[in-house]
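Morning run. Coffee first, then this:
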Amino acid sequence: MGSPRSLDGPRGIRILFIPRTEGGRTSERTPFLFHLMNSRHAVAGVSAPWDALLYNPAKARWPRLLLYAIDKVLLILRGVILGHRSRATVVFCETVHHALAGLGIARVLGIPCVWDSHGNGKLLYESLGKGAWSIRLVTVLERFLGKRVDHLITVSERDASAYVDMGLPREKIHVIPVASTYRTSIRSSHPMLLHRGAIVRQCCCSSGVFDTNRTGRRLSS
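And here it is:
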């Protein structure tokens, strides 16, 4: 259930990216990763036109909850159609909300799913002083997704440890720093590649060059 899949090599990689980036509507990390992958592989972006409304806390909660469920169904349908047309070999999802739809798309298409978490939800909710029910809900959701996606990317070792504490296997968790920091590493020409659902990270870090295979072992340093 969501165990890391084997490497196929870089050729023929076609990424279905959720959501398609449109300028400033997404975080800095999302458009950066989208353009990075698009410069090295074939990338098709799934549009998520309701995001600005769904995740705006200034809007009424109950209408947004109804739209949330409808949005995820439409995202799955849209993604399956686009993924089939583009012959996608991996689904790459930004945030837990997009991963919910992305996992469904990956299951229908029979391809790996990678979730790029922008930070552990439980840690975030605790830092914001959210109620116990909200913290429990986000924990259950992230544990559910984390155990079923093929690979999970997060932004720090602290977040990675929090996911391990949720019961996720450490070998499927990969740490890639925030885009503003990661951009400096990319300039050294050690790219991050997607190999059919396994993350191969070859970025210049203080500890050396990392190449992570399906077991999560450090191959070089």
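Strands lie at 14-18, 42-45, 90-94, 113-116, 151-154, 173-175, 192-195, 198-201, 204-205, 208-209. Good start to the day.
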